[in-house]
Amino acid sequence: MAYPAITNFVFPDHLDLIRFRQGHHGIHFMVQVAYRAMFDTPDGVTHTVTVPPGTTTDFASIPRVFQSIVTKLGPHIEAAVIHDHLCITRENSGYTSKEAADIFYAGMIAGGTPRRTAWMMWKAVCWGGPRW
């Protein structure tokens, strides 16, 4: 199994969200205070991704068939907030969709998601997630 080569992943801030409903798409959450993730890439560069206040997230768009295996709530939510932000900003984020998926994986591991679950979610994003 190949794993993303992102290291030293940390969430230096407290994640501050409020819950709200957005139409027929169900429950969403909104970031209240800027939220950051920091990590190193194989080229030795330290990166910071900042999610601004007002960014919305549903934590994970999990197909119904997998909802008995992975839930929306869990140790992956911090990484999901970062990934959702990268998906919203796409090309303007400075990352490709593959790099965003790798950041998601590294964030899940840093947040305490079991490796097997993180790998399955990473693969699902790589195969069926947004591309840019």
Characterize the structure shown.
Helices cover 32% and strands 21% of the residues. It is of the alpha+beta class and 132 residues long. The protein has one domain. The longest helix is centred in the last third of the chain and has 15 residues, at 97-111. It contains 3 helices and 6 strands; from the N terminus they run ββββββααα. The two termini are 24 Å apart. It has helices spanning 77-89, 97-111, 115-128; strands at 7-10, 17-21, 27-31, 35-40, 46-51, 56-57. A 3-stranded antiparallel beta sheet has the order 1-4-5, covered by helices on one side. The chain has a 3-stranded antiparallel beta sheet with strand order 2-3-6.
By DSSP, the count of extended strands is 6
Low-confidence stretches are none
Query: What Rg, in angstroms, do the CA atoms define?
Result: 14 Å
Distance between the termini: 24 Å
Structural class: alpha+beta
Tally of helical segments? 3
Our count of domains comes out at: 1
What is the secondary structure topology, with strand pairs?
Layout: E1 7-10, E2 17-21, E3 27-31, E4 35-40, E5 46-51, E6 56-57, H1 77-89, H2 97-111, H3 115-128
Antiparallel strand pairs: 1-4, 2-3, 3-6, 4-5
Helix pairs in contact: 1-2, 2-3
